[in-house]
Amino acid sequence: MIEARGLSKFYGDFAAVRDATFQVPKGQVCAFLGPNGAGKSTTMKLLTGYLAPTAGEARIGGFDVAEQRLECSARAGYLPENGPLYEDMTPLSMLRFFGRARGLAGSRLASRLDAVVQQCALFEVLEKSISKLSKGYRQRVGMAQALLHDPEVLIMDEPTTGLDPNQIREVRGLIRHLGKEKTLLLSTHILQEVEAVADRVILINAGRVVFDGLPAEMLAYGATLDEAFRTLTGAPA
Asked: Is the pTM of this model over 0.85?
């Protein structure tokens, strides 16, 4: 469902991502792990078409992101880190706007609005200005927008950043629930996230994929995931 083939992004001589190759099959929750600045967000932007690659290609559901953008967009939902929201809107008005932009109307739009409001627990804030919402609720609105068209693939960049422990637990629960039906690529640098929700780990460091396997297989590089992370990223003990 998600595929990168030799994906690279250069800014002059600097390689933000270099020759990234991996696949995420249908129905898998994959943690995209790495330290800050490793290239996680850049890779996600390449996978969703927000950036054009310097080399290589990305595919969503078998469709080429560069050549078949609309087909990919119809199959993928994207939650960027600190995703921009229209602060002068309410969650309800913003979700209606995005739904219409995606071609939803009538009973289909109404049913999808009901579904994402329930999934993301937005009942209490539907008519409040987004500018007045907490970080946790803003994140939920972003997730609702990504889920609105019922995509097969979800790509989420640091979805729990800045949330309190209760909000983190709620978001992780939603991710586990969504993972029963959808394919998820979840960017994070938080190892507890991997243990809580991931079926598989892809670890990127300095723009290169340095590990691709099960969370348990990471333990070949250290007694704990923390030790394995330090070993794979070349960090001092």
From this structure: yes
